[in-house]
Protein backbone atom coordinates (compact mmCIF):
# COMPACT_ATOMS: atom_id res chain seq x y z
CA UNK A 1 0.00 0.00 0.00
CA UNK A 2 1.41 3.35 -0.98
CA UNK A 3 1.66 6.24 1.47
CA UNK A 4 -1.06 8.81 0.51
CA UNK A 5 0.52 11.73 -1.29
CA UNK A 6 4.08 10.48 -0.64
CA UNK A 7 6.23 10.16 -2.67
CA UNK A 8 4.66 12.44 -5.32
CA UNK A 9 6.61 11.16 -8.35
CA UNK A 10 7.24 7.67 -9.53
CA UNK A 11 10.62 6.40 -8.62
CA UNK A 12 10.40 7.22 -4.93
CA UNK A 13 11.61 10.18 -2.90
CA UNK A 14 13.56 12.18 -3.89
CA UNK A 15 13.07 11.67 -7.68
CA UNK A 16 16.11 13.50 -9.05
CA UNK A 17 19.74 12.56 -9.04
CA UNK A 18 21.65 14.57 -6.47
CA UNK A 19 18.85 14.47 -3.90
CA UNK A 20 19.16 13.20 -0.36
CA UNK A 21 20.61 10.65 -0.16
CA UNK A 22 22.18 10.54 -3.63
CA UNK A 23 23.38 6.92 -3.72
CA UNK A 24 21.66 4.14 -5.49
CA UNK A 25 19.56 2.03 -3.22
CA UNK A 26 19.11 4.89 -0.78
CA UNK A 27 16.10 5.56 1.37
CA UNK A 28 13.33 5.58 0.31
CA UNK A 29 13.55 2.85 -2.42
CA UNK A 30 12.59 3.12 -6.03
CA UNK A 31 9.14 2.80 -7.48
CA UNK A 32 6.99 0.49 -5.53
CA UNK A 33 5.85 2.85 -2.81
CA UNK A 34 6.22 2.68 0.94
CA UNK A 35 7.12 0.39 2.68
CA UNK A 36 10.04 -0.81 0.53
CA UNK A 37 10.22 -4.17 -1.17
CA UNK A 38 13.05 -6.64 -0.92
CA UNK A 39 15.97 -5.35 1.13
CA UNK A 40 13.74 -3.85 3.81
CA UNK A 41 14.61 -0.82 5.88
CA UNK A 42 17.34 0.31 5.90
CA UNK A 43 18.60 -0.92 2.50
CA UNK A 44 21.70 -3.02 2.61
CA UNK A 45 23.97 -1.16 0.20
CA UNK A 46 24.39 2.59 0.31
CA UNK A 47 21.23 3.00 2.33
CA UNK A 48 20.43 5.44 5.10
CA UNK A 49 22.23 5.67 7.46
CA UNK A 50 25.47 5.20 5.45
CA UNK A 51 27.05 1.82 5.84
CA UNK A 52 30.68 2.83 6.31
CA UNK A 53 31.59 5.04 9.25
CA UNK A 54 28.22 4.73 10.91
CA UNK A 55 26.47 7.69 12.50
CA UNK A 56 27.53 10.54 12.70
CA UNK A 57 28.92 10.86 9.13
CA UNK A 58 32.58 10.92 8.19
CA UNK A 59 34.77 13.93 7.48
CA UNK A 60 32.72 16.67 6.06
CA UNK A 61 29.98 15.96 8.56
CA UNK A 62 26.61 17.56 8.16
CA UNK A 63 25.59 19.00 5.72
CA UNK A 64 26.49 16.38 3.12
CA UNK A 65 28.97 16.97 0.27
CA UNK A 66 27.93 18.59 -2.97
CA UNK A 67 24.70 17.23 -4.19
CA UNK A 68 23.53 16.29 -0.73
CA UNK A 69 21.03 18.03 1.55
CA UNK A 70 20.42 20.90 1.10
CA UNK A 71 21.22 20.90 -2.67
CA UNK A 72 23.34 23.48 -4.40
CA UNK A 73 21.78 25.89 -6.82
CA UNK A 74 20.49 24.08 -9.86
CA UNK A 75 21.44 20.64 -8.58
CA UNK A 76 17.90 19.43 -8.89
CA UNK A 77 17.84 18.13 -5.33
CA UNK A 78 15.23 18.53 -2.59
CA UNK A 79 13.28 20.72 -2.56
CA UNK A 80 13.40 21.91 -6.17
CA UNK A 81 10.44 20.45 -8.03
CA UNK A 82 8.04 19.36 -5.31
CA UNK A 83 5.08 21.39 -4.14
CA UNK A 84 5.82 23.29 -0.92
CA UNK A 85 3.35 21.38 1.23
CA UNK A 86 4.60 17.97 0.06
CA UNK A 87 8.21 19.06 0.48
CA UNK A 88 7.56 20.12 4.06
CA UNK A 89 5.87 16.82 4.84
CA UNK A 90 8.79 14.98 3.33
CA UNK A 91 11.24 17.01 5.36
CA UNK A 92 9.26 16.44 8.56
CA UNK A 93 9.24 12.73 7.87
CA UNK A 94 13.04 12.71 7.43
CA UNK A 95 13.46 14.63 10.68
CA UNK A 96 11.39 12.02 12.51
CA UNK A 97 13.51 9.23 11.03
CA UNK A 98 16.75 10.96 12.02
CA UNK A 99 15.58 11.66 15.55
CA UNK A 100 14.46 8.08 15.99
CA UNK A 101 17.89 6.93 14.84
CA UNK A 102 19.61 8.83 17.62
CA UNK A 103 19.72 12.50 16.76
CA UNK A 104 20.51 14.81 13.89
CA UNK A 105 24.22 14.91 13.38
CA UNK A 106 26.87 15.99 15.83
CA UNK A 107 26.13 19.27 17.62
CA UNK A 108 28.94 21.70 18.33
CA UNK A 109 31.07 21.40 21.46
CA UNK A 110 29.70 17.99 22.40
CA UNK A 111 26.27 19.32 23.39
CA UNK A 112 23.69 16.65 22.77
CA UNK A 113 26.27 14.50 21.00
CA UNK A 114 25.35 10.86 20.38
CA UNK A 115 26.94 8.07 22.31
CA UNK A 116 26.31 9.41 25.81
CA UNK A 117 29.11 12.00 25.76
CA UNK A 118 29.21 14.31 28.80
CA UNK A 119 27.28 17.45 28.10
CA UNK A 120 27.94 20.17 30.67
CA UNK A 121 26.72 23.67 29.92
CA UNK A 122 25.59 24.57 26.39
CA UNK A 123 28.56 25.74 24.40
CA UNK A 124 31.05 24.42 26.97
CA UNK A 125 34.35 22.81 26.01
CA UNK A 126 34.60 19.22 24.98
CA UNK A 127 35.82 16.79 27.64
CA UNK A 128 39.53 17.15 28.28
CA UNK A 129 39.72 20.72 27.03
CA UNK A 130 40.27 23.63 29.43
CA UNK A 131 37.30 25.65 30.63
CA UNK A 132 37.51 29.31 29.56
CA UNK A 133 37.59 32.03 32.19
CA UNK A 134 34.41 33.43 33.65
CA UNK A 135 32.89 36.40 31.81
CA UNK A 136 34.74 39.49 32.79
CA UNK A 137 37.33 37.61 34.84
CA UNK A 138 40.89 38.93 34.66
CA UNK A 139 42.30 36.48 32.13
CA UNK A 140 45.91 37.15 33.08
CA UNK A 141 45.44 37.23 36.84
CA UNK A 142 47.34 34.21 38.20
CA UNK A 143 45.45 34.37 41.51
CA UNK A 144 42.07 33.84 39.85
CA UNK A 145 41.52 30.07 39.77
CA UNK A 146 40.19 28.29 36.73
CA UNK A 147 36.69 26.94 36.51
CA UNK A 148 37.42 23.54 38.01
CA UNK A 149 38.49 20.49 36.07
CA UNK A 150 36.43 18.52 33.63
CA UNK A 151 32.89 19.34 32.69
CA UNK A 152 30.81 20.67 35.62
CA UNK A 153 27.43 19.23 36.42
CA UNK A 154 24.39 21.43 36.58
CA UNK A 155 23.54 23.05 39.94
CA UNK A 156 21.64 20.63 42.14
CA UNK A 157 18.84 22.04 44.27
CA UNK A 158 17.58 20.06 47.26
CA UNK A 159 15.04 17.42 46.36
CA UNK A 160 11.58 18.91 46.24
CA UNK A 161 8.91 16.57 47.57
CA UNK A 162 5.45 16.91 46.18
CA UNK A 163 2.44 17.30 48.38
CA UNK A 164 2.06 18.10 52.06
CA UNK A 165 5.27 17.56 54.04
CA UNK A 166 4.09 18.53 57.51
CA UNK A 167 3.40 16.23 60.46
CA UNK A 168 0.22 17.97 61.69
CA UNK A 169 -2.86 18.06 59.46
CA UNK A 170 -6.39 19.42 59.77
CA UNK A 171 -8.55 17.26 61.99
CA UNK A 172 -11.76 16.29 60.13
CA UNK A 173 -14.90 17.83 61.62
CA UNK A 174 -13.13 19.86 64.32
CA UNK A 175 -15.51 22.28 66.07
CA UNK A 176 -14.02 25.17 68.13
CA UNK A 177 -16.99 25.22 70.52
CA UNK A 178 -16.64 21.52 71.33
CA UNK A 179 -12.85 21.85 71.57
CA UNK A 180 -12.96 24.70 74.09
CA UNK A 181 -15.37 22.65 76.18
CA UNK A 182 -12.74 19.91 76.32
CA UNK A 183 -10.11 22.45 77.39
CA UNK A 184 -12.40 23.92 80.03
CA UNK A 185 -13.13 20.51 81.55
CA UNK A 186 -9.40 19.69 81.51
CA UNK A 187 -8.63 22.80 83.61
CA UNK A 188 -11.72 22.94 85.82
CA UNK A 189 -11.70 21.58 89.35
CA UNK A 190 -8.88 20.02 91.28
CA UNK A 191 -5.84 19.29 89.13
CA UNK A 192 -5.39 19.49 85.39
CA UNK A 193 -6.00 16.83 82.79
CA UNK A 194 -2.81 17.38 80.75
CA UNK A 195 -3.50 14.29 78.62
CA UNK A 196 -6.74 15.82 77.33
CA UNK A 197 -4.90 19.03 76.40
CA UNK A 198 -2.14 17.07 74.65
CA UNK A 199 -4.62 14.91 72.76
CA UNK A 200 -6.62 17.92 71.61
CA UNK A 201 -3.86 20.35 70.62
CA UNK A 202 -1.65 17.61 69.20
CA UNK A 203 -4.38 16.68 66.71
CA UNK A 204 -5.38 20.14 65.48
CA UNK A 205 -3.68 22.23 62.81
CA UNK A 206 -2.69 25.80 63.55
CA UNK A 207 -5.73 27.23 61.77
CA UNK A 208 -7.91 25.00 63.98
CA UNK A 209 -6.06 25.92 67.19
CA UNK A 210 -5.92 29.71 66.84
CA UNK A 211 -9.76 30.21 66.81
CA UNK A 212 -9.95 28.45 70.18
CA UNK A 213 -8.81 31.65 71.92
CA UNK A 214 -11.81 33.64 70.68
CA UNK A 215 -14.20 30.70 71.10
CA UNK A 216 -13.09 30.23 74.72
CA UNK A 217 -13.71 33.87 75.56
CA UNK A 218 -17.05 33.83 73.74
CA UNK A 219 -18.20 30.71 75.57
CA UNK A 220 -16.83 31.28 79.08
CA UNK A 221 -15.95 34.98 79.19
CA UNK A 222 -12.40 34.14 80.18
CA UNK A 223 -8.97 34.43 78.56
CA UNK A 224 -7.64 31.06 77.43
CA UNK A 225 -3.99 32.13 77.70
CA UNK A 226 -4.55 33.30 81.29
CA UNK A 227 -6.26 30.07 82.33
CA UNK A 228 -3.56 27.90 80.73
CA UNK A 229 -0.80 29.90 82.43
CA UNK A 230 -2.48 29.38 85.77
CA UNK A 231 -2.78 25.62 85.24
CA UNK A 232 0.45 24.70 83.44
CA UNK A 233 4.13 25.27 84.16
CA UNK A 234 7.57 25.14 82.61
CA UNK A 235 8.32 24.13 79.04
CA UNK A 236 4.99 22.38 78.65
CA UNK A 237 3.24 25.70 79.29
CA UNK A 238 5.50 27.50 76.79
CA UNK A 239 4.84 24.87 74.13
CA UNK A 240 1.05 24.96 74.60
CA UNK A 241 0.93 28.77 74.43
CA UNK A 242 3.14 28.79 71.31
CA UNK A 243 0.77 26.38 69.56
CA UNK A 244 -2.20 28.72 70.13
CA UNK A 245 -0.58 31.65 68.27
CA UNK A 246 -0.67 32.23 64.54
CA UNK A 247 2.72 31.65 62.82
CA UNK A 248 3.39 35.37 62.30
CA UNK A 249 2.34 36.30 65.86
CA UNK A 250 4.57 33.55 67.21
CA UNK A 251 7.52 34.71 65.08
CA UNK A 252 7.01 38.32 66.16
CA UNK A 253 6.97 37.30 69.82
CA UNK A 254 10.11 35.18 69.34
CA UNK A 255 11.93 38.09 67.70
CA UNK A 256 10.84 40.32 70.57
CA UNK A 257 12.21 37.87 73.14
CA UNK A 258 15.45 37.52 71.17
CA UNK A 259 16.03 41.30 71.16
CA UNK A 260 14.81 42.53 74.53
CA UNK A 261 16.79 42.26 77.72
CA UNK A 262 20.51 42.22 78.39
CA UNK A 263 21.58 39.72 75.73
CA UNK A 264 20.53 39.10 72.15
CA UNK A 265 19.72 35.71 70.63
CA UNK A 266 21.38 36.39 67.28
CA UNK A 267 20.79 32.84 66.06
CA UNK A 268 17.03 33.23 66.56
CA UNK A 269 17.00 36.46 64.55
CA UNK A 270 18.88 34.86 61.67
CA UNK A 271 16.82 31.65 61.79
CA UNK A 272 13.49 33.45 61.41
CA UNK A 273 14.54 36.15 58.94
CA UNK A 274 16.47 33.82 56.63
CA UNK A 275 13.82 31.08 56.39
CA UNK A 276 10.56 33.01 55.98
CA UNK A 277 9.06 34.18 52.68
CA UNK A 278 8.65 37.83 51.73
CA UNK A 279 4.95 37.79 52.61
CA UNK A 280 5.64 36.16 55.97
CA UNK A 281 8.33 38.70 56.86
CA UNK A 282 6.09 41.63 55.93
CA UNK A 283 3.29 40.25 58.10
CA UNK A 284 5.72 39.73 60.98
CA UNK A 285 6.95 43.33 60.77
CA UNK A 286 3.36 44.65 60.77
CA UNK A 287 2.46 42.59 63.84
CA UNK A 288 5.68 43.56 65.61
CA UNK A 289 4.92 47.27 65.18
CA UNK A 290 1.30 46.84 66.28
CA UNK A 291 2.13 44.67 69.31
CA UNK A 292 5.24 46.39 70.62
CA UNK A 293 4.93 49.98 69.37
CA UNK A 294 8.29 49.91 67.61
CA UNK A 295 9.30 48.80 64.14
CA UNK A 296 11.31 45.62 63.84
CA UNK A 297 13.99 47.49 61.92
CA UNK A 298 14.39 50.03 64.74
CA UNK A 299 14.55 47.24 67.29
CA UNK A 300 17.27 45.47 65.29
CA UNK A 301 19.21 48.73 64.79
CA UNK A 302 19.23 49.52 68.50
CA UNK A 303 20.30 46.03 69.55
CA UNK A 304 22.92 45.07 66.93
CA UNK A 305 25.79 46.75 65.13
CA UNK A 306 28.12 46.68 62.14
CA UNK A 307 27.73 44.34 59.20
CA UNK A 308 25.57 41.98 61.25
CA UNK A 309 23.05 44.80 61.72
CA UNK A 310 23.09 45.46 57.95
CA UNK A 311 22.50 41.77 57.24
CA UNK A 312 19.47 41.61 59.56
CA UNK A 313 17.99 44.87 58.27
CA UNK A 314 18.35 43.68 54.66
CA UNK A 315 16.60 40.39 55.47
CA UNK A 316 13.84 42.14 57.43
CA UNK A 317 12.74 44.11 54.36
CA UNK A 318 11.06 41.08 52.81
CA UNK A 319 12.15 42.09 49.31
CA UNK A 320 14.09 39.03 48.15
CA UNK A 321 13.66 38.12 44.50
CA UNK A 322 11.33 35.11 44.45
CA UNK A 323 11.51 34.12 40.78
CA UNK A 324 12.13 30.44 40.13
CA UNK A 325 14.10 30.88 36.91
CA UNK A 326 17.90 30.88 37.00
CA UNK A 327 20.22 32.80 34.66
CA UNK A 328 23.42 30.73 34.69
CA UNK A 329 25.55 33.54 33.23
CA UNK A 330 24.38 35.90 35.99
CA UNK A 331 25.06 33.18 38.59
CA UNK A 332 28.63 32.94 37.29
CA UNK A 333 29.03 36.71 37.51
CA UNK A 334 27.73 36.74 41.10
CA UNK A 335 30.13 33.92 42.00
CA UNK A 336 32.95 36.03 40.56
CA UNK A 337 31.89 39.04 42.59
CA UNK A 338 31.82 37.02 45.81
CA UNK A 339 35.25 35.59 45.07
CA UNK A 340 36.63 39.05 44.31
CA UNK A 341 35.07 40.41 47.52
CA UNK A 342 36.55 37.70 49.72
CA UNK A 343 39.09 35.06 48.79
CA UNK A 344 40.75 37.18 46.08
CA UNK A 345 41.02 40.33 48.14
CA UNK A 346 43.08 41.62 51.05
CA UNK A 347 40.33 42.10 53.61
CA UNK A 348 36.67 41.37 52.91
CA UNK A 349 33.96 43.42 51.25
CA UNK A 350 31.03 42.30 53.41
CA UNK A 351 28.70 44.66 51.56
CA UNK A 352 29.03 42.61 48.37
CA UNK A 353 28.12 39.43 50.25
CA UNK A 354 25.18 41.24 51.83
CA UNK A 355 23.92 42.54 48.48
CA UNK A 356 23.92 39.14 46.80
CA UNK A 357 22.85 36.89 49.70
CA UNK A 358 19.92 39.10 50.74
CA UNK A 359 18.53 40.15 47.35
CA UNK A 360 18.88 37.22 44.95
CA UNK A 361 16.31 34.44 44.72
CA UNK A 362 16.98 31.16 46.49
CA UNK A 363 17.16 29.07 43.26
CA UNK A 364 19.58 31.63 41.83
CA UNK A 365 21.76 31.56 44.96
CA UNK A 366 21.93 27.76 44.87
CA UNK A 367 23.34 28.11 41.35
CA UNK A 368 25.76 30.81 42.58
CA UNK A 369 27.03 28.53 45.36
CA UNK A 370 27.56 25.74 42.84
CA UNK A 371 29.44 28.04 40.45
CA UNK A 372 31.54 29.41 43.31
CA UNK A 373 32.65 25.94 44.37
CA UNK A 374 33.45 24.97 40.79
CA UNK A 375 35.44 28.16 40.35
CA UNK A 376 37.62 28.18 43.47
CA UNK A 377 37.26 24.65 44.83
CA UNK A 378 35.77 25.70 48.17
CA UNK A 379 32.22 25.77 49.51
CA UNK A 380 30.69 29.16 50.19
CA UNK A 381 30.32 28.52 53.93
CA UNK A 382 34.01 27.69 54.27
CA UNK A 383 35.03 30.83 52.40
CA UNK A 384 32.84 32.93 54.68
CA UNK A 385 34.42 31.33 57.76
CA UNK A 386 37.86 32.15 56.37
CA UNK A 387 36.96 35.75 55.62
CA UNK A 388 34.63 36.81 58.46
CA UNK A 389 34.24 36.39 62.20
CA UNK A 390 31.75 36.85 65.01
CA UNK A 391 28.03 37.40 64.47
CA UNK A 392 28.35 38.43 60.83
CA UNK A 393 30.18 35.17 60.09
CA UNK A 394 27.56 33.00 61.84
CA UNK A 395 24.78 35.04 60.24
CA UNK A 396 26.11 34.73 56.69
CA UNK A 397 26.81 31.01 57.12
CA UNK A 398 23.27 30.43 58.43
CA UNK A 399 21.78 32.26 55.43
CA UNK A 400 23.82 30.11 53.03
CA UNK A 401 22.90 26.85 54.78
CA UNK A 402 19.22 27.73 54.94
CA UNK A 403 19.14 28.60 51.23
CA UNK A 404 21.10 25.51 50.20
CA UNK A 405 18.88 23.04 52.05
CA UNK A 406 16.28 24.35 54.48
CA UNK A 407 15.34 20.98 56.09
CA UNK A 408 19.03 20.15 56.68
CA UNK A 409 19.54 23.59 58.23
CA UNK A 410 16.69 23.02 60.71
CA UNK A 411 17.89 19.48 61.42
CA UNK A 412 21.25 20.95 62.42
CA UNK A 413 19.56 23.59 64.58
CA UNK A 414 17.53 20.91 66.37
CA UNK A 415 20.57 18.72 66.93
CA UNK A 416 22.54 21.59 68.44
CA UNK A 417 19.57 22.47 70.66
CA UNK A 418 19.56 18.98 72.19
CA UNK A 419 23.28 18.23 72.07
CA UNK A 420 25.39 18.37 75.20
CA UNK A 421 24.48 18.80 78.86
CA UNK A 422 21.49 21.14 78.57
CA UNK A 423 18.65 21.56 76.11
CA UNK A 424 17.89 24.86 74.40
CA UNK A 425 14.16 24.47 74.85
CA UNK A 426 13.28 27.83 73.33
CA UNK A 427 14.90 26.79 70.04
CA UNK A 428 13.43 23.30 70.21
CA UNK A 429 9.89 24.62 70.79
CA UNK A 430 10.15 27.29 68.09
CA UNK A 431 11.32 24.92 65.36
CA UNK A 432 8.95 22.08 66.24
CA UNK A 433 5.94 24.42 66.26
CA UNK A 434 6.87 26.52 63.22
CA UNK A 435 7.89 23.62 60.95
CA UNK A 436 5.26 21.04 61.97
CA UNK A 437 2.99 22.03 59.10
CA UNK A 438 5.66 22.94 56.53
CA UNK A 439 8.51 20.46 56.20
CA UNK A 440 8.77 18.38 59.35
CA UNK A 441 8.88 15.13 57.35
CA UNK A 442 11.84 16.45 55.37
CA UNK A 443 13.56 17.65 58.55
CA UNK A 444 13.12 14.19 60.09
CA UNK A 445 14.61 12.62 56.98
CA UNK A 446 17.59 15.01 56.97
CA UNK A 447 18.10 14.39 60.71
CA UNK A 448 18.29 10.65 60.26
CA UNK A 449 20.62 10.90 57.26
CA UNK A 450 22.97 13.35 59.00
CA UNK A 451 23.07 12.00 62.55
CA UNK A 452 22.10 8.35 62.16
CA UNK A 453 19.37 8.73 64.77
CA UNK A 454 15.72 9.63 64.41
CA UNK A 455 14.53 13.03 65.63
CA UNK A 456 11.74 11.24 67.51
CA UNK A 457 14.26 9.12 69.42
CA UNK A 458 16.46 12.11 70.26
CA UNK A 459 13.50 14.12 71.59
CA UNK A 460 12.36 11.12 73.63
CA UNK A 461 15.75 10.83 75.28
CA UNK A 462 16.29 14.55 75.85
CA UNK A 463 12.89 15.65 77.22
CA UNK A 464 10.35 14.26 79.63
CA UNK A 465 6.77 14.29 80.87
CA UNK A 466 3.92 16.11 79.20
CA UNK A 467 6.38 18.38 77.41
CA UNK A 468 7.90 15.35 75.68
CA UNK A 469 4.50 13.89 74.78
CA UNK A 470 3.36 17.06 73.02
CA UNK A 471 6.69 17.52 71.22
CA UNK A 472 6.41 13.96 69.90
CA UNK A 473 2.92 14.78 68.62
CA UNK A 474 4.48 17.61 66.61
CA UNK A 475 7.25 15.32 65.40
CA UNK A 476 4.63 12.95 64.05
CA UNK A 477 6.47 9.66 64.37
CA UNK A 478 9.82 7.88 64.25
CA UNK A 479 11.87 7.16 61.11
From TrEMBL:
Biased composition (Pro residues): 124-135
UniProtKB keywords: Annexin, Calcium, Calcium/phospholipid-binding, Repeat
Record region (Disordered): 1-85, 120-157
Biased composition, class Low complexity, residue ranges: 1-73
GO molecular function, one term: calcium-dependent phospholipid binding
The keyword Calcium appears for this protein: yes
One GO term of the biological process aspect: cytokinetic process
GO cellular component, one term: cytoplasm
Database matches in InterPro entries: Annexin, Annexin_repeat, Annexin_repeat_CS, Annexin_sf
SMART domains: ANX
Domain notes: A pair of annexin repeats may form one binding site for calcium and phospholipid.
Similarity field: Belongs to the annexin family.
Identification of the protein by name: Annexin
Species per Swiss-Prot/TrEMBL record: Labrus bergylta
Amino acid sequence: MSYPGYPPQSGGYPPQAGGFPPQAGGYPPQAGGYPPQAGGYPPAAGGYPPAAGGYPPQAGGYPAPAGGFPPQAGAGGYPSQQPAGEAQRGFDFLVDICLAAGGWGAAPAGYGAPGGAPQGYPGGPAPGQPMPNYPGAPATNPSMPGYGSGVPSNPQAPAVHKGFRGSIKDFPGADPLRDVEVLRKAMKGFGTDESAIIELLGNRSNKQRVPLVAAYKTTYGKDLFHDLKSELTGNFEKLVLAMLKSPSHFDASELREAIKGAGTDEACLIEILSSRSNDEIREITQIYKAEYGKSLEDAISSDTSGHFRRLLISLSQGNRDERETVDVSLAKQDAQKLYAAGENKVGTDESQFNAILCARSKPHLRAVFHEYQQMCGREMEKSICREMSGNVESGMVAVVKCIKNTPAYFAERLHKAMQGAGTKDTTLIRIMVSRSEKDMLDIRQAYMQTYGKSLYTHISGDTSGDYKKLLLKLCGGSD
